[in-house]
Amino acid sequence: MLTPLVQESTPAIIARKLHNAIANGDFPPGSQLTESGLAADLGVSRGPLREAMQRLTAEGLLVSHRNRGLFVVSMERDDIRDMYVARTAVERAAVQQVIAHSESEAVAALDEAVEAMRVFGDEPNGAGMAEADMGFHQTLVELAESRRLSRLHETILVETRMCLRAMRGTYSSGKERIDEHQALVDAIAAGDSAKADALMIEHMADGLRRLIGDGDDAGDVPGSGS
Predict the structure, then answer these.
(1) pLDDT digits (tens, 9 = 90+) for 70-110
(2) Domain segments of the chain: what residues?
(3) Residues 158-165, mean pLDDT to the nearest whole number
(4) Pairing of strands 69-72, 32-33
(5) Residue 39 pLDDT
(6) What share of the chain is helix, strand, coil (3-state, %, to 5)?
């Protein structure tokens, strides 16, 4: 049976384009977005553009400074830690949902996501590896089959991509990066909830440490024991 086509509204299309532009670094953290400039670039009127920008403001990707305008959120130390708090919660929940569903197709999809990372094993800090890494986590959350988790993760995803660009240069081994993800898949395949949860917590803590350093609060994410 064919399913009905879902037609996006103009504000939704604009919001998605802005999402992608921010995620790709076209609008760096802290940069100002002006209605006049964006309307001209996108070839749209200010009404739907304003609605799209309001959506991104509600999601926390844009911030409004009084008498100054709208700016892309700045990924300062506290912002990064807060983003990892949210990301850890969402992905831990996703892991448990995938294990609960106990579907071989999910494990196969995660294995494929790891294989996509192996392609870039010789370039652990390259753009390809970063994108494949992000693809793994996106696949994981989608496999949880939870609309709400996916919705939350979609917002976090843009900030995560911004952070992954900053993380480049911190990995000395592609194998190490890949093995972390494979170990998580193996725990999920074995149905070992406790091990998978522990691996996810440590994986997130490691990512946070790579971004903000090795201070006392580095890696302090929910369930990390810090």
Answers:
(1) 999 888 888 889 999 999 999 999 999 999 999 999 999 99
(2) 10-72, 77-212
(3) 76
(4) antiparallel
(5) 93
(6) 65, 5, 30
Name residues whose C-beta falls within 8 Å of residue 3's C-beta, 6 or more positions apart in sequence: none
Instruction: Give the C-alpha separation, 111 to 145, whole Å.
Output: 18
* CATH number assigned to the domain covering 77-212: 1.20.120.530
Residue of higher predicted confidence among 68 and 125: 68
Sheet holding 62-65, edge to edge: 32-33, 69-72, 62-65
Same fold, 10-72 and 77-212: no
The answer for residues whose C-beta is within 8 angstroms of residue 121's C-beta and 6 or more apart is 129, 174, 175, 178
Judged on CB neighbours under 10 Å (0-12, 13-18, 19+), 225 is exposed
Question: Tokens standing for 169?
Answer: 């240069």
Instruction: Report d(CA 102, CA 100) in Å as an integer.
Output: 5
Retrieve residue 130's tokens: 């970063």
Answering whether pTM is above 0.90, one says: no
Q: In 3D, which of 91, 86, 100, 192 has the Cα closest to residue 136?
A: 91
Q: Which CATH class is domain 10-72?
A: mainly alpha
Residue type, 82: D
CA-to-CA distance for 32 and 109, rounded, in angstroms? 39
Please state at what angle helix 77-101 crosses helix 193-212, rounded to 10 degrees. Answer: 160
Rounded to 5 degrees, what are φ and ψ at 70?
-100, 140
Separation of alpha carbons 198 and 149, rounded Å:
20
- Only one residue has tokens 């959350």, namely 141
- Measured in degrees and rounded to the nearest 5, phi and psi for residue 72 equal -65, 135
